[in-house]
Structures are given as C-alpha cells and as structure tokens.
Amino acid sequence: MVYKLCAFTQFPTIHFYSTIRISVVNVDTRYKMPAASFGLTQLPGTGDCGIKDVWNHNLHEEFQIIRQVVQKYHWVAMDTEFPGVVARPIGEFRSTADYQYQLLRCNVDLLRIIQLGLTFMDENGKTPPGYTTWQFNFKFNLQEDMYAQDSIDLLQNSGLQFRKHEEDGIEPLEFAELLMSSGLVLMDNIKWLSFHSGYDFGYLLKLLTDQNLPTDENDFFESLRLYFPTVYDVKYLMKLCKNLKGGLQEVADQLELRRVGPQHQAGSDSHLTGMAFFKIKEIFFDDNIESSSGHLYGLGAPFSVNVNNFQDNGENGNSS
C-alpha cells in the first residue's frame, strides 16, 4: 500500500511499517509548519463553564479528583482535537470503510493529539457538582510537529493557546500511565460516549499502547473493545433516528441543546456530545440502545469491494 503525504515543509522523525512505501507529493500551503507564529487572541476561559483545563503542572492533581468522580459517574463523553489530515492512502481497498480506516491509521500514526475532553455523567445524564469536564492539553510544537494549516487555524480561532501547549503541555506517556490507573479504561462499568469518533479512539489507543495503530481494522476494534468495552457513537446512532443529520453543533441545535464553553475545544464538544447522547436516547431509543454499542461511524462496514480510489469523509480535526 502506498501513502501519499500532503503538504508540510519539513519531516519530523517518522517510523513506518516495513511493508509500506511512501509517496511524497508537492508541498501544499494548506499543510505546513510556519517558522514562528504563536500569537492569537485568547477567548474567554473555560473555568466559569464547569470545564477544568489540565496542563502538565496540574495533571496529577486532577487525576486524583477524576478517580473519585468516576466512582459515581460512569458515563464518560469524550472528544479530541488533533492536527487534521496530512496523508492519504492510495491503492486497492476492500471497501470504503477499509479506505477510511487506512486513512485514519496513517494520520493517527503520523500526528500528535492536541486536546482531549472528558465529561462525566450518571445514568440519567446528570453531571457532578462543580467541574463536570476535564480538558487535557497536550504538548504540541508548531515548529516541530506536523499538521494541516486549516485545522490549526480553526483551533487558534477557537482559543487554543499553542505557546502554552509547547511550554506546559502534557507528555503523552505520562498521561497514558495515569489514564491506565484511573478506573476509566479496561472497565466494563464505564460507558464511553462520542461523536464520529474513529479518530478520537484512534488517538486514545495510540496513547494507551504507545504503538502505531493495527494494520487491520479488525485488530483495531479488538483493541477498542479491550480498553473501552462499551462505546456509543452519536453520529452512528443518528443513522437510526429520523430527521437527525449534520455535525455535532447542527444536531445539538435540532435537539435544542445549549453549548457550554467554546466550540471546537475538546471540553465543550465532549459536554455537548454527552447531552446529545442522552437526549437522543430519551427521544428515540427508550431502553433499547445497548445493541448500538461498539459501532463507530464510517468504520466497520460489512460489504467488500475492490476499488482504486476513494474520497475521504472530510474529517479534518473536528466534526463539530
């Protein structure tokens, strides 16, 4: 299989599977690492919205709190922000879902997560008093890490502080160690809520395993079931609901839900995802939603065909 790498001005250290050949295309100005441009207008903080920003300096302290919260609030809504799509696989694929997984895999392997939001709820969708959402901000360097420029522009306009990500961002390995011992993963009683979340769980699995994603999609889902035994993808659930369509914000508008915090930040998006799930569950599913667990929108399609070229699904670092 050949991977076409799109648009950046220098290569970080990259490890590829030995069976994969790399095809580099001409530089596209939409995908680059500018010399030094960190300035942005900071939007209002998230603290007054019940969203706790977590950086390297308060990581251990906040995980101590999370270990207590998760004992009562077993429903965890999740969202990530990441640096877009910079590579596309070319060749023959078994299905559109196979292409989408290979697209996901090569980009998750190449790139670094920027932000993770976790919102805690009980079985009725109620959130804890005080802080309801923890927003983890990872180390990311605009001069060294690969990214798609349009995704970074979107995140900067949403208020992400990339200078602070460079100086006080969380180290992925340290986060993974704390997540493993938090009571959130490998637990049958924890229900994970998400929206169009193939990339989200891809980045989480990469963090937890400290490895590239599996070559085969079936192995990816096997790892997913191991670390996250119960997963609901709201975008997948929408296929089973009449008249629901669009991205996260559009669905929230249709359901008359009010966003808390800035759009296109992982904390706010995770909170809105959790609210959307419980609203959809109430309106469309009653108590019959368990059969929809384990499905991720756009992945795992049952059909099989041989094709040479697919278009990706347009996911570029946010689906909200």
TrEMBL record:
GO terms for cellular component: CCR4-NOT complex; cytoplasm; nucleus. GO terms for biological process: regulation of translation; regulatory ncRNA-mediated gene silencing. Gene3D superfamilies: Ribonuclease H-like superfamily/Ribonuclease H. InterPro entries: CNOT7/CNOT8/Pop2, RNase_CAF1, RNaseH-like_sf, RNaseH_sf. It is found in: Cytoplasm; Nucleus. It catalyses: Exonucleolytic cleavage of poly(A) to 5'-AMP. It is an enzyme of class 3 (hydrolase). Its EC number is 3.1.13.4. Keywords: Cytoplasm, Exonuclease, Hydrolase, Metal-binding, Nuclease, Nucleus, Repressor, RNA-binding, RNA-mediated gene silencing, Transcription, Transcription regulation, Translation regulation. It comes from the Eukaryota. GO terms for molecular function: metal ion binding; poly(A)-specific ribonuclease activity; RNA binding. Belongs to the CAF1 family. This is poly(A)-specific ribonuclease. It comes from Mythimna separata (Oriental armyworm).
